[in-house]
């Protein structure tokens, strides 16, 4: 027989080990989702922020994000079930041994060799039997002449490799059982429509991304490897409103350049308010945009929930340090990581308040700088702005591992000269040792992550 296409193979030990790892990842995802759900509950029941925007964001968490998380978990469960079904069917239909291994190209090669052996035995045996009969006919009168019988050997070869037949024998049955198993499992997998469900879920999550969640579904390697769990991660729209002319002082010209035709997919792109820098990196624009006249993210604040969600789906690190100004608590919150659609980089924001949900400190127009040293040894230009939130993301640096993230360093500076001497001394005393602050000219601080 022949197997059309590439060789098919199966290793029960490898599959069993992979399924064990897959199950553990599934349990980890369940546990993380429970943690995330607790954060959702805390956000929903928080009454610090009120009004239409706050109620809308809570409704989104309640009616949208929770449901999406369970749908992602269902997709993970379907993937786990698919492999479990495959493993059971192989055991029952092909080979139940826990260390069973099969490769169709190896079996076909063995079949080819044994068919050659069969033909050699058949031809040689027939010749020897014919010669023996001739000798027995001529000299049998002088004594007994034994006629060799090669039929048992030929029958053994026929049972093993099929002999002259193309569709019989033990090897054929092994290959045929495995090919039928493979075909049936492919049909079963197609009937589950898992890729379609993942694509549909990914689209819905992307389209429904809004100012509160900034989330979309990422299914790493699902189409290419079929082994990775789906994961939720903080992200950004897949379509970006791209603008040049954004200068180092934060201003940008009014000539808008659209790389895509206007459509519903452009809506989140337009309102995300990121612009290109001179080095091609993305930087947030807190000064002017197309939506509210100032950066719309100022209305959403920040909370630990965002870091929890971010950490579920991708590689990131974040730190916080606090200071007091005019009797009010403020937080310097800074990050580095692989921001998926944006690429690797970092950001630093100033937030106000001691509550769980902190307000964006838009009253802070601080001179800030950011510069990224990437894992490959390259460095971004130093970006500076007078703002409460500064960012630097490189779209050419993506899919960072933990090692890549550790090898990436981001340096920030902030001019803290608005603090009086007592506030400044309290800030330095509380943070310098833990955050390795460097003091530059006056009250300018430098710190890294």
Describe the structure concisely:
It contains 11 helices and 16 strands. It has 449 residues and is α+β, with helices and mostly antiparallel strands.
Map the helices and strands.
Blueprint (H helix, E strand, L loop, with lengths): L8 E3 H33 L7 H42 L7 E3 H36 L11 H11 L8 H23 L1 H14 L7 E4 L3 H4 L5 E4 L31 H6 L2 E3 L5 E3 L19 H10 L2 E10 L2 E11 L5 E9 L6 E2 L5 E8 L9 E5 L1 E6 L7 H6 L1 E7 L5 H15 L2 E2 L4 E5 L1
Antiparallel strand pairs: 1-2, 3-4, 5-6, 7-8, 8-9, 9-10, 9-13, 11-12, 11-14, 14-16, 15-16
Helix pairs in contact: 1-2, 1-9, 2-5, 2-6, 3-4, 3-5
Low-confidence parts: 210-271
Strand content: 15-25%
From the N-terminal CA to the C-terminal CA, the straight-line distance is: 62 Å
The topology string of helices and strands comes to: EHHEHHHHEHEHEEHEEEEEEEHEHEE
Helix content: 40-55%
Structural class computed from helices and strand pairing = alpha+beta
Number of domains: 3
Give me the count of strands.
16
Largest sheet: 5 strands, antiparallel
Gross morphology? elongated
Compute the average pLDDT. 77
